[in-house]
């Protein structure tokens, strides 16, 4: 087991390095740097001034060298200009250049400075991750039990009417991406002109204009059912169908096994067969699927946060990418890549752990 | 505005149904012919035995025919602006229609007074031009790399699988934000990616014909030669925009979007193909082929691939749906497409800003996209069920 985990970790680190390098390369393309120079310096800079700005701010040289500096395995750049002022990657403005450490990269916890939020990247990313954490938590609380229940119910008796009905629902939800379900949910529950809200308002059942709130900005400070239900539902819906279908497939596979038939024949009630014999084995595959859903959820989070104006991690990513905030975008990417890789690792280890039939190769 | 001049919902629906007339005719003809001859049509014919598959096919064909007849269906120019009224509701008459101009906004108009109905119909054409083509390219890449990876295994497999997992570990949205930007076009990265990805169909067909016909050189030379001439001709135009005759070309915006979507999809196809090949290569007919002395590529392309068609066709349908969703996502974030483009993603994005007041500009494309993807998913489900019955 230990050897397996160690090898998986090795591959994971290699993948993380490769991925962050790709992100670094793509965010630090010459046109992006030129744009940065013009926003940080002045818009009317000449091409020559832009080139020297790039050179003087540590964005010159080979991309590998800059990546190593960013990562924190190579000493950060230090430049002394003709006025005798020494500046460098690790030297904060107004501090003694001699006292600064020579390495400062992601590994040392120096994630750079966000040009959009005017704050250190690490601080703003962690803060936004907190908001997104709540969203993810509620999505999981809604999505996992619902989808497992749907999958088990429809896989229990393959081909029955329940199975047909639930399968159609599952297919329908997988066909509805977040930006569609979000729009439909808002139309039905949070529009002043259509859906259920005007009717309820007219009947005097709700005092506000709409049943649910169409934005989740107020959920940043105070999460309530009325401002959080729609975004949570929007993300959860897309995942529910997929997990339910996986659970159904694995459940139908288990239900035709010999030991289920044996249990039925010795007179165990159908309910107990499902609960005690089938469920444990049937839930192994969905576990990995749920874990591998995290990268997809990340996608959904970005769309939903943009749609409902919830200022979390996804919203930050959109802001960073839209405003050419290189350090912030890199920080977001590191977090995203880590989330994906860690969940992959958990799913691999968990699969082996849950399924004793798999011998470690 | 005078309330009485608005069309009622019944009138709107009647007029829309009337606009779609060519689609209804085409659908009825297709279904009558298909049901009549379903026993002779193989897997496609069997689809008409499953209600789920039939509903799926109906939805998909509806949009395919809509895209095809879009010019006849639209009531107004999808990118032109009519009048100064913002967000008029469905059924609003035009302020002063000229002669021969359609007199109503059937499904209303958006904040720039562009006709929603016509935009959605034209959007279908855009989506159905890009999504299946991108999926086909992704399949070419995935199949060409997945076959040898699964068949030979070893170092090749390790390297390719690592690369595939690398792309899969990227959150799609991040990749789009990095790959589909105006800046990146200056660096030429989309062109390099296109140069790599677009060569795979040429390689695929060359090996396909070569492995089959290498015993009779005249035939082989003809097929491989034709593939090379047509393939490289299209390749030069699509990837580098340097077609000497100017037939093949791709808008740089579109190329960027297209390449990114292919790039995101192909690793998944690779993994599926690799898995199927690893399963199938232990079969007796493969061993028989090997004893007969057939070349590895012949076995892969002419023995294993035809036997893997069931799951691949099903995945192809699902993947077109998924690609549609991806294209919508790109449009939703306003990436890569021109702001005037009537594609569904950007129309939803345009409409969502005023969602709580005016629903119609956003909800119509949303429902359109959903119904197309739903149709594709149902179609895939029907195909899976029917192909399992063999």
Please provide a written account of the structure:
The complex is a heterodimer of chains A (361) and B (390). By secondary structure, chain A is mainly alpha-helical. Chain A has helices spanning 2-27, 30-40, 47-56, 63-71, 121-156, 161-174, 178-189, 197-203, 225-255, 258-265, 270-282, 284-308, 313-322, 326-354, and strands at residues 78-80, 86-88, 113-114, 119-120. Chain A has a two-stranded antiparallel sheet. Chain A is flat and about 90 Å long. Chain B has 18 helices and two strands. Chain B has helices at residues 9-19, 21-36, 42-46, 51-68, 70-73, 116-152, 154-169, 172-179, 182-187, 189-197, 199-213, 217-240, 252-280, 284-292, 296-307, 309-332, 344-352, 360-388, and strands spanning 92-93, 104-105. In chain B, helix 6 (116-152) crosses helix 16 and helix 16 (309-332) runs parallel beside helix 17. The termini of chain B are far apart. In chain B, 46% of the residues are buried. The mean pLDDT of chain B is 86. Classes of the chains: A mainly alpha (361), B mainly alpha (390). Chains A and B meet through helix 1, helix 2, helix 6, helix 7 and helix 12 of A and helix 7, helix 8, helix 9, helix 16 and helix 17 of B.
List key phrases describing it.
heterodimer, A: 361 residues, mainly alpha, two-stranded antiparallel ribbon, two-stranded antiparallel sheet, 14 helices, 4 strands, flat, B: 390 residues, 18 helices, 2 strands, 1% strand, globular
Chain-averaged pLDDT of chain B: 86
Low-pLDDT stretches of chain B are none
Strand order of the largest sheet of chain B: 1-2
Radius of gyration over C-alpha positions of chain A, nearest whole angstrom: 26 Å
The number of helices of chain B is 18
Secondary structure category of chain B? mainly alpha
Q: Uncertain regions of chain A: pLDDT < 50 for 5+ in a row?
A: none
Helix/strand layout:
The complex is a heterodimer of chains A (361) and B (390).
Chain A: H1 2-27, H2 30-40, H3 47-56, H4 63-71, E1 78-80, E2 86-88, E3 113-114, E4 119-120, H5 121-156, H6 161-174, H7 178-189, H8 197-203, H9 225-255, H10 258-265, H11 270-282, H12 284-308, H13 313-322, H14 326-354
Antiparallel strand pairs in A: 1-2, 3-4
Chain B: H1 9-19, H2 21-36, H3 42-46, H4 51-68, H5 70-73, E1 92-93, E2 104-105, H6 116-152, H7 154-169, H8 172-179, H9 182-187, H10 189-197, H11 199-213, H12 217-240, H13 252-280, H14 284-292, H15 296-307, H16 309-332, H17 344-352, H18 360-388
Antiparallel strand pairs in B: 1-2
């Amino acid at each position: 087991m230990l050897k397996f985990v160690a090898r998986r970790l090795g591959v994971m680190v290699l993948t993380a390095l490769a991925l962050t390098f790709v992100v670094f390369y793509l965010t630090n393309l010459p046109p992006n740097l030129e744009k940065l120079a013009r926003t940080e310096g002045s818009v009317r800079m000449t091409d020559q001034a832009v080139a020297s700005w790039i050179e003087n701010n540590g964005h010159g040289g080979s991309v590998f060298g800059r990546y190593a500096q960013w990562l924190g395995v190579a000493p950060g750049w230090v430049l002394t200009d003709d006025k005798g002022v020494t500046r460098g990657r690790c030297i904060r403005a107004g501090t003694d250049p001699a006292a600064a450490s020579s390495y400062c990269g992601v590994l040392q916890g120096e994630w750079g400075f966000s040009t959009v939020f005017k704050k250190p990247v690490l601080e703003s990313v962690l803060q936004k991750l907190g908001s997104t954490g709540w969203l993810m938590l509620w999505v999981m609380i809604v999505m996992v039990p619902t989808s497992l229940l749907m999958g088990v119910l429809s896989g229990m008796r393959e081909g029955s009417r329940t199975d047909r009905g639930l399968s159609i629902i599952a297919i329908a939800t997988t066909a509805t991406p977040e930006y569609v379900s979000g729009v439909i949910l808002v139309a039905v529950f949070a529009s002043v002109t259509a859906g259920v809200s005007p009717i309820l308002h007219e009947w005097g059942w709700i005092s506000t204009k709409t049943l649910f709130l169409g934005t989740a900005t107020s959920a940043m400070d105070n999460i309530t059912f009325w401002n959080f239900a729609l975004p949570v539902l929007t993300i959860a819906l897309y995942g529910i169908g997929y997990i339910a279908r996986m659970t159904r497939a694995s459940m139908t596979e288990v239900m035709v096994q010999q030991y289920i038939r044996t249990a039925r024949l010795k007179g165990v009630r159908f309910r107990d067969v499902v609960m005690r014999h089938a469920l444990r084995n049937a839930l192994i595959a969905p576990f990995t699927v749920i874990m591998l859903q995290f990268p997809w959820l990340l996608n959904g989070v970005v769309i939903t946060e943009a749609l409902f104006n919830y200022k979390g991690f996804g919203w930050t990513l959109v802001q960073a990418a839209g405003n050419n905030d290189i350090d912030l975008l890199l920080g977001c990417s590191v977090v995203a890549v880590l989330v994906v890789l860690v969940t992959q690792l958990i799913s691999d280890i968990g699969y082996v752990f849950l399924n004793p039939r798999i011998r470690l190769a | 505005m005078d309330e009485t001049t608005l069309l009622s919902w019944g009138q709107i629906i009647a007029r829309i149904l009337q606009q779609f007339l060519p689609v209804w005719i085409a659908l009825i003809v297709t279904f009558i012919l298909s049901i009549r001859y379903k026993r002779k049509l193989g897997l496609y014919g069997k689809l008409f035995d499953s209600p789920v598959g039939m509903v799926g096919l109906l939805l998909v064909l509806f949009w395919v025919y809509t895209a095809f007849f879009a010019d006849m269906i639209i009531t107004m120019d999808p990118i032109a602006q009519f009048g100064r009224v913002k967000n008029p509701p469905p059924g609003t008459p035009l302020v002063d229609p000229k002669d021969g101009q359609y007199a109503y906004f059937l499904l209303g108009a958006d904040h720039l007074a562009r006709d929603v109905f016509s935009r959605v119909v034209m959007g279908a054409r855009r989506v159905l031009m890009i999504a299946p083509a991108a999926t086909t390219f992704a399949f070419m890449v995935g199949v060409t790399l997945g076959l040898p990876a699964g068949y030979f295994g070893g170092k090749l497999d390790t390297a390719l699988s690592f690369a595939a997992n690398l792309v899969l570990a990227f959150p799609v949205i991040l990749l789009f934000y990095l790959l589909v930007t105006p800046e990146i076009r200056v660096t030429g990265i989309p062109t390099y990616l296109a140069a790599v990805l677009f060569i795979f169909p040429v390689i695929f067909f060359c090996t396909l014909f070569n492995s089959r016909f290498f015993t009779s050189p005249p035939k082989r030379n003809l097929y491989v030669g034709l593939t090379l001439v047509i393939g490289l001709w299209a390749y030069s135009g699509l990837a580098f925009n340097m077609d000497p005759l100017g037939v093949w070309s791709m808008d740089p915006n579109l190329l960027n979007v297209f390449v990114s979507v292919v790039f995101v999809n192909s690793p998944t196809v690779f993994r599926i193909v690799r898995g199927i090949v690893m399963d199938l290569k232990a079969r007796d007919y493969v061993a028989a082929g090997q004893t007969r002395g057939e070349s590895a590529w012949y076995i892969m392309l002419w023995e294993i691939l035809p036997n893997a068609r069931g799951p691949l066709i099903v995945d192809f349908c699902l993947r077109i749906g998924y690609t549609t969703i991806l294209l919508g996502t790109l449009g939703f974030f306003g990436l890569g497409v021109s702001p005037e483009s009537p594609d569904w993603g950007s129309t939803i994005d345009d409409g969502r800003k005023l969602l709580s007041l005016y629903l119609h500009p956003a909800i119509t494309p949303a429902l359109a996209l959903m119904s197309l993807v739903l149709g594709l998913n149902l179609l895939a489900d029907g195909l899976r069920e029917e192909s399992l019955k063999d």
